[in-house]
Amino acid sequence: GLMHLQGKPVCSFDPEGLIFAAGVNSEMVKLYDLRSFDKGPFATFKMQYDRTCEWTGLKFSNDGKLILISTNGGFIRLIDAFKGAVLHTFGGYNNSKAVTLEASFTPDSQFIMIGSEDGKIHVWNGESGMKVAVLDGKHTGPITCLQFNPKFMTFASACSNMAFWLPTIDD
Predict the structure, then answer these.
(1) Gene3D superfamilies given for it (predicted)?
(2) Is residue 128 a part of any domain in this protein?
(3) d(CA 7, CA 152)
(4) CATH number at residue 149
(5) What is the reported pTM?
(6) Is it the case that residue 171 has pLDDT exceeding 60?
(7) For residue range 28-53, what is the model confidence (pLDDT) as tens digits?
(8) What is the per-residue pLDDT for 93?
(9) Facing residues of 145 across strands?
(10) How many CA atoms lie within 13 A of 128 on its CB side?
C-alpha cells in the first residue's frame, strides 16, 4: 500500500508489528492498524507545534506503551501511546546546529537516551522525567546513532567513530 502524508513524515512500528505510528507535519501522531490502514488512522494525537524544530523520528518502547518523538531541536518528547498525552519533554543537551540525533529506549523501557552535538549521551528516567546521567564516550562529533541490543544490556553510539557500551552496577 501507499500513503500520501503531508510534509516530511516519520514513522515506527509497535513491538508486535501490528500498529504503526506516523508523525505528520511535526504536530500530529496518527496510529494505524497495519491490517486495515487504508481505512485511516484509528487514533490521532495533536501535539503542540514548535516552529523552532522538526520531528526527526518516532520510536515505540519495547512494551508498546510509550512513543518517543525525536526532534532536530534541543528536546525530545515522551507520549502515552494509548492516549497521546505528553508525559515528559526532555532537554538540556546540545543541538544548536539542528542535527538529526537518534533517541532510544533501554530494553526495559525505563530509561530514555539521546546523543548530543558535543559527543555526550544524556539519560533520563522515563517515569520521573529526571536526568540520571551524562555519559562521555569520547566521541569527536555529534552522536547521530544510538542503538540498544534488544536482548542484552549493551548499546552502541556513533558519530564518525563507534563506541560499544557495557553498563556495570557499582556497589
Answers:
(1) YVTN repeat-like/Quinoprotein amine dehydrogenase
(2) yes
(3) 37
(4) 2.130.10.10
(5) 0.91
(6) no
(7) 999 999 999 889 999 999 998 888 89
(8) 93
(9) 158
(10) 6
